[in-house]
C-alpha cells in the first residue's frame, strides 16, 4: 500500500496562540489582524522576532529579525512577550486531538507534526477532504489555523505545507514535483540553510530543479553528506517513517541554549560531550539503559530539526552516548549557526535486563572499564559537586 503522509503546521504559532488567549480572556487584541510580533522588548529594543503577523510581514518584518530593526520598519508595531507555558498547553491540546484520529503521529516541534494517514484513509472520501475536515475542526475547536501538506513521504508533505498560507491544504505528490517544487528557489528546500544555499549558488544552482538535475557527487564534494541529502530532497527522495513515541515510553534527555551560537563542529561536539555526560549520569542513576538516542539542533533562525537511531546494544556510558550523538550530529548539521543542542535517550530497558551484544560493540573489558570510570566520576561529583572532576578538554587555559 502506498503511504499518505500529512504535515500539520500551526500558522504563526506563538502569535496565534497569544491572540487566542487574548480573545478568550479579553486581555488584548487579536495580534493576527494588526502589525504585531512576539518577542523582544520595546523599551530596551533588545531581542528578536519570534513570530509575526501577516500585516507585519507586509512591512518587511521577518522571523529572527532584531526587534530594533523591526521597529524601524514599523513604528506602531505591537510587541507581545512570549509565554512558553501557554504555548506548551496549546501544543499539548492540539497533539491530544490529533491522537484521537490516529496514534501514528510524530511531533516535529512544538507547533508541527507528521501524521501517517495511510491507516485511516478508509474513513474519508479522499486525503484532501480529510485534511480540510481536520483543518476546519482545529480552527473551530481551538481558534487558530493550520496548514496541512499531503504527500507520499514526510519531506514532500512538509514542503507542501509551506506553500501559500494561512489556513490552506496543499498536495505535493511525486508527479507534481516538477511543476510545484522544482521552479522554487533552492533556499525554499527543507534543510537548505544560508551557508548551503550560498555554496550552491556559487555552483550556478539557483532553483530546486537545477539542484535535482545536478551531479550528486559534485554537490557532496562541496557540502559533504549534507549535500547528498539536499540532492535527494530536491528529487523528492525520503523514505523515513513516521515515528510515534509509544504512549508508555519514557525518556531521559537534556538540552541547552548556547550563550553564543556554535559555528564549528568542535564547538558543538564539546557541548554534546557535556550533554552526553548529563544524560548518561541520569541513566545510571535510574538504573536503565538507552535503546535509542536522538539529537536535536535548533538553528539561529529558530528552525529545529532532529535525528534518532536505535542502538544495536542498549548502553548508559558517557562515551557510548557521545559517540552516537556525534554520528547523528554529523548527519544532521547543515553548517548553519547553532542556538540549541539536545540529546534524548529513549526505549529504556532495565540495567539488569540481558542484552544481545553486537560484533561492532566495544570489547567487553574496555566497556567494563568505561562503566567503572563513569560510576567513579558519578560518586565523586555526588560527594564534592559537579566541578570536582572535569575533562581535560574542558579546562580553561591559564591567563
Descriptive account of the structure:
There is one protein chain. About 3% of the residues have low confidence. The chain has a five-stranded mixed sheet. Strands 9, 10, 11, 12 and 13 form a five-stranded antiparallel sheet that branches. The chain is of the alpha+beta class.
Task: Give the arrangement of secondary structure elements.
Blueprint: E1 5-10, H1 13-25, E2 36-38, E3 51-52, H2 54-57, H3 67-73, E4 78-80, H4 84-99, E5 105-109, E6 112-116, H5 127-142, E7 146-151, H6 154-161, E8 169-171, H7 177-180, H8 194-202, H9 208-212, H10 216-234, E9 252-262, H11 265-286, E10 288-299, E11 304-315, H12 318-332, E12 338-346, E13 349-350, H13 364-384
Parallel strand pairs: 2-4, 7-8
Antiparallel strand pairs: 1-6, 1-7, 2-3, 5-6, 9-12, 10-11, 10-12, 10-13
Amino acid at each position: 500500500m502506498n503511504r499518505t503522509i500529512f504535515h500539520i503546521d500551526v500558522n504563526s504559532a506563538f502569535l496565534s496562540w497569544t491572540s487566542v488567549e487574548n480573545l478568550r480572556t479579553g486581555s488584548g487584541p487579536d495580534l493576527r489582524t494588526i502589525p504585531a510580533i512576539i518577542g523582544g522588548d520595546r523599551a530596551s529594543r533588545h531581542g528578536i522576532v519570534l513570530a509575526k503577523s501577516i500585516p507585519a510581514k507586509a512591512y518587511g518584518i521577518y522571523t529572527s529579525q532584531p526587534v530594533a530593526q523591526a521597529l524601524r520598519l514599523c513604528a506602531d508595531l505591537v510587541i507581545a512577550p512570549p509565554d512558553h507555558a501557554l504555548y506548551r498547553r496549546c501544543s499539548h491540546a492540539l497533539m491530544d486531538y490529533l491522537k484521537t484520529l490516529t496514534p501514528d503521529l510524530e511531533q516535529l516541534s512544538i507547533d508541527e507534526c507528521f501524521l501517517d494517514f495511510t491507516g485511516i484513509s478508509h474513513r474519508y472520501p479522499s486525503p484532501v477532504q480529510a485534511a480540510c475536515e481536520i483543518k476546519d475542526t482545529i480552527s473551530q475547536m481551538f481558534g487558530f489555523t493550520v496548514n496541512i501538506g499531503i504527500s507520499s513521504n514526510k519531506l514532500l508533505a512538509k514542503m507542501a505545507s509551506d506553500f501559500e498560507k494561512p489556513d490552506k491544504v496543499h498536495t505535493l505528490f511525486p508527479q507534481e514535483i516538477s511543476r510545484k517544487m522544482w521552479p522554487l528557489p533552492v533556499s525554499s528546500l527543507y534543510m537548505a540553510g544560508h551557508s548551503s544555499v550560498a555554496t550552491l549558488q556559487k555552483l550556478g544552482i539557483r532553483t530546486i530543479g537545477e539542484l535535482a538535475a545536478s551531479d550528486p557527487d559534485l554537490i557532496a564534494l562541496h557540502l559533504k553528506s549534507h549535500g547528498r541529502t539536499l540532492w535527494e530532497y530536491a528529487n523528492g527522495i525520503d523514505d523515513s517513517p513516521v515515528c510515534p513515541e509509544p504512549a508508555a515510553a519514557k525518556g531521559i534527555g537534556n538540552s541547552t541554549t548556547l550563550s553564543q551560537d556554535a559555528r564549528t563542529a568542535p564547538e558543538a561536539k564539546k557541548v554534546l560531550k557535556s550533554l552526553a555526560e548529563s544524560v548518561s549520569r541520569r541513566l545510571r542513576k535510574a538504573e536503565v539503559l538507552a535503546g535509542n538516542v536522538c539529537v536535536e539542533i535548533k538553528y539561529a533562525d529558530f528552525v529545529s530539526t532532529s535525528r534518532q537511531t536505535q542502538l544495536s546494544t542498549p548502553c548508559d556510558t558517557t562515551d557510548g552516548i557521545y559517540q552516537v550523538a556525534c554520528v547523528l550530529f554529523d548527519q544532521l548539521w547543515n553548517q548553519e549557526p547553532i542556538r540549541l543542542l539536545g540529546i534524548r535517550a529513549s526505549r529504556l530497558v532495565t540495567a539488569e535486563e540481558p542484552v544481545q551484544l553486537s560484533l561492532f560493540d566495544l570489547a567487553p573489558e574496555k566497556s567494563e572499564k568505561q562503566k567503572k570510570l563513569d560510576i567513579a566520576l558519578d560518586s565523586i561529583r555526588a560527594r564534592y559537586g559537579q566541578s570536582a572532576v572535569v575533562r581535560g578538554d574542558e579546562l580553561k587555559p591559564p591567563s
